[in-house]
Write the structure tokens for this entry.
Amino acid sequence: MQSKRLTILLLLLCVWYTGNAQTGFYLTNGKKRADIPFEFVNNFIVITLNFNGKLPLRFIYDTGAEHTILNKREIGDFLGLEYEREFRVAGSDLREELVAYLSRNIVLEIPGKVRTGKEDILVLEEDYFHFEEYAGVNVDGILAGHIFSQYVVHINYNLHFITLYERKHFKLPQGGFTEIPVEIFRNKMYFYTQLEQGDSIIPVKLLLDSGAALPLLLFSDTHPLLTPPPTAVPSNIGMGLGGFLEGFTGRINRLQLGDLQQDGVLSYFQTLDSLIDAPYINRRNGLIGNALLNRFELIMDYNQSKIWLKPGRNYNKAFLYDRSGITVIATGQRFNVFIVQHVLPGSPADLAGIKKGDELFRLNLLRAKSITLSDVLRILQKKPGKKVRITVLREGKKLHKTLVLRDLI
């Protein structure tokens, strides 16, 4: 399933702090490997960690983030963290300002499996990015991908495990894995490949980003042929500090991944404008996220600058896109209050009279408060021609609407 819940575009995070970065996790009890369980929620990898020996917290595992981040200062205050230095940085829209603090000597642990030394992390003054609204579950922070980088990292999306191997004890599983060389820059992985769009074959450099919930994001001003196809629709492609970042959603014909390929890839197109030459962009043309990566088993070796991919059970599935025209976020203590954030003009939702700010009260026979964000998205992606009866709350009144779903892309 592919949802419209996208990654928060944390373009600014990698410029904050370049001092003593993470020492990383190490295996405990003399083990040669460790299996780390995770939840896979709306295309986010969520890991529960013990924070400073005091509190279990939930972090999104993000290979596209350069630093580990605690999203909520109130948690840091509650735990008595000391803040050594304040950072004030312009957000991704270059207008709003983000405030964060450096906190040192943080210990993260998954008991009996892995533990860090004394880490440096960043603590946000406010929860600027609202990951929870997109994941539909509680999220306390972002775990930088390279925190596991001293080991070979095997992400099994089918079994919901990340396995860490001591390098000298790692053997590539037999059968079906394709090796792809990568470039390591500022502890992040980039690979060179090509995509087909129309009659053109376009060389691209992509960031491997497990913190992105989308399949593919392309920066349309980094190559003259990376333009949205004629069938693309205007859409919100993420959240910046100044609000939603606008772009287009369409499909490319094919993306090559070593000897493997994916056809009809749902792709989001963004214009970087003044950010295009920023050092942390690293002259890349975009990124590949979890909605595509979860079609594979993924093995990463930072030391040898390579990854391996093996087709998983989702490899041949079509990339689904919302068929209603509604962008929804999850709010409330249990993340079961669903608010319409955007309605695509001319879409089934627009024609039915649904408006931004409406609260979804009932979908077909289901009370909204009895289902999850994943359930909502699944209903809105059903087959073309399917009728969805939606009751919304608007200014204290219940309004009954009927959508006839159809392909938007």
